[in-house]
Design a protein that fits this description.
The chain is α/β, with parallel strands linked by helices and 318 residues long. Helix content is 42%, strand content 18%. It contains 14 helices and nine strands. The strands form two sheets. It has a seven-stranded mixed beta sheet with strand order 5-4-3-6-7-9-8, sandwiched between helices. Strands 1-2 form a two-stranded antiparallel sheet. The longest helix is centred in the N-terminal third of the chain and has 15 residues. The structure holds S-adenosylmethionine (SAM). Its EC number is 2.1.1.297.
Length: 318
């Protein structure tokens, strides 16, 4: 059946074809495999569940899977699966993705949030000083550098009612997508999003959001030499400036640290997602060059790789 379907070309579905959702999932998974598409079965399942109005296959009713796709559904499946054949990531194909408990709009080339960044957000939420606050604090202020789709900022706003966030990104598309996601989730009132570059616009950033209680960032941190090892999906569709951190992967991290020492309230914290090679380098940098900051700890991700750095601005008493 599948060979017959695709012998006439994948872009348009055969008009005379009657196919159930279940059969379409199998056929497209096989076709993806033949074309070397990564995660062929998952891709097919995500796309067809999406066309049927659900997020995952587990949410689609059994009976629905055995029903024949109507013309509109079949055309949509073919249209979206043909996009996936070009190696477009499934998150861009279905135009949305879940991050923690939020569903966010996705649009190329804005960086697709990764699962480990959910752990970065958890580190902040575990900090009882921030969540409970002291009894006099009615507001908390945070800066996110490199907001992308808004995943981190919006999750924090969603979980901490007294938080105000300043988010910035050097990409206009990212700034627009963060605003769009904030509006869709009703979180726009406590969020300011700015088109700013942390390397070039430090003075503007200081004037707009000084001071903040904490700074969070999942910056571009890959070493330039490792960019070529990335999957085709990433290289072809995601913004390279969201990933490439320069020769040592620290070209955006260094200005973030320099800015933090001026921007944070005493004992204010910095939460960074980094490459596994970075924590000792950042610790040395802080100890030798940035006397106003304290390196608190390195935390590992779920696969036990050292991926997160927590730092603190020294208090007035050192
Ligand atoms: C790895 S992505 C993270 C996006 C989002 N925070 C997330 O975790 O899904 C890094 C983001 O930093 C932005 N960025 C890169 N260089 C920057 C710079 N110099 N100043 C501000 N933002 C920058 C990129 O445009 C990109 O959106």
């Amino acid at each position: 059946m599948c060979c017959w379907l695709f012998s006439r070309g994948a872009v348009a579905p055969p008009a005379d074809c009657s196919i159930t959702a279940e059969q379409a999932i199998r056929c497209w998974a096989q076709h993806f495999t033949l074309h070397g598409i990564s995660e062929p079965l998952l891709s097919s399942q995500y796309i067809i569940s999406h066309v049927l109005g659900e997020k995952t296959l587990a949410c689609v009713q059994r009976k629905r899977l055995r029903d024949t796709l109507n013309d509109r559904e079949r055309e949509r499946v073919w249209e979206l699966c043909s996009k996936r054949l070009t190696r477009m990531p499934v998150q861009y194909v279905i135009e949305e993705w879940d991050f923690r408990d939020l569903t966010l709009k996705m649009r190329p080339p804005v960086f697709i949030p990764r699962p480990e960044t959910e752990e970065l957000v958890s580190l902040v939420l575990e900090d009882s000083r921030l969540i409970q606050g002291d009894s006099h604090r009615t507001d908390l202020r945070c800066l996110e550098v490199g907001c992308g789709s808004g995943a981190i900022s919006l999750s924090l706003l969603h979980s901490i009612p007294q938080l105000r966030v300043f988010a910035l990104d050097q990409s206009q598309t990212a700034v627009c997508l963060t605003m769009e996601n904030a509006n869709r989730l009703g979180l726009q009132d406590r969020l300011e999003v700015h088109l700013l570059d942390v390397i070039k616009d430090a003075d503007v950033i200081l004037s707009k959001c000084n001071p903040v209680d904490f700074l969070i960032s999942n910056p571009p941190y890959l070493l330039s030499q490792d960019m070529k090892t990335l999957q085709t999906e990433i290289l072809k569709f995601e913004d390279h400036s969201a990933l490439d951190g320069g020769l040592d992967g620290l070209s955006v991290i260094r200005p973030i640290l320099a800015l933090s020492s001026k921007l944070l309230t005493p004992r204010g914290r910095i939460y960074l997602e980094v490459a596994p090679c970075h924590p000792p380098i950042i610790q040395q940098l802080i100890e030798e060059m940035m006397p106003g900051l304290l390196y608190l700890e390195t935390r590992c991700d779920l696969t036990n790789r050292p991926r997160f750095c927590i730092l603190q601005k020294k208090g007035e008493d050192g």
